[in-house]
Amino acid sequence: MQRYKQALGLTICFFYFSPLFIVSRTIPLSSQILTLMVTWSLLGLGAIACLWKYYENRVKKNWESSQQSNQILKDKFDNIEQMQVTKEHVAMLMRELHQKDENEKVLQRRLDQLNHHHLQEIREFTDLNKDLQEQLTKRESSLSESRLTLKEQRRVIEKKQEEINILKIQVNDFKYEIESILKLKNQPAPAAEPIKIQTDSKSEASTQGLSLKDKLQRYIDLSMNITQSNPFAAPQNGYRLPIGALVIDQRRLFDRLQAEETDVILVYSQEDEKLVFVNKQIQELLGWRAEKFLKDFSFLVEKGLSNWQETLKGLQDGYLGEVRLLMKTRSGENLLTHCYLKVIPKGAFEGHVLGILTSAANR
Fold first, then answer.
1. What's the pLDDT tens digit per position in 68-89?
2. In a domain, 172, yes or no
């Protein structure tokens, strides 16, 4: 660069100052020489301009190339710094990765230990479950045998209980028969009149002054107390006694109602749909014997039989039914009667209908 500047300075001095030096001399020159000198001066100025332009371009190119070199160097330095930062980051990541690998190895060893412990517990649980299942199977088989034994013993006990109940009923039946025979044997029978069962004077006195509805309720209470007073009634443990027990209770009830000499008392079985009892007072009212009345009841009713049947079907617990019947007497006349009916709500005769029949004129 320094040599370029010196050459440029010498050229300027030679081509620019030399013609002026010549002109300044008082040497006479021809016009051609003067023209040549002027031309030479102009060419020198042009050469100076070209050299200056060339110098500027050269300087510009050198500056641009230096700038490019500087930029390249700067980029290289930046890349080197970035590579160093990246290298440090990679080293840090490698250290972290190595630490994570170590942690993963520790966790894997812990996981292997836990899996081994878990497998061991599963084996222990399987063995224990197997032992418990075997014990449970043995206990179930033992319980099944015990249940079978208990069922057999229960059946034997039930059978014995039934036999005992039957024997109690038979004893009760024999006892009642003996009591009836002793009463008949000790009771003097009049020659002209049929045998009458003596009634309790207190019970006759208690019915005097009562309405027919009250009497009917009294007879229903009496029928409910028959079973309650019977020591051999159906037990409370669920066993049902044979039908002999009900027969005994019926005989007790019918004998008690037969002793009532003030009213005609009826007992109707809803299950059998027929009259099962009427006391001997029916003979005083209609002239028919009790057996005849029970057997031919539907033929002895002249009017009101349909009302009788409808009233029986509509009876419910606690409901008092009333029906009028035109009855045929033994003398051939018709008698208008009035009947009160009521269902026995509980006891051995639960569902039976008890009624009082009387003349409509005496009602």
1. 888 888 888 888 888 889 989 9
2. no
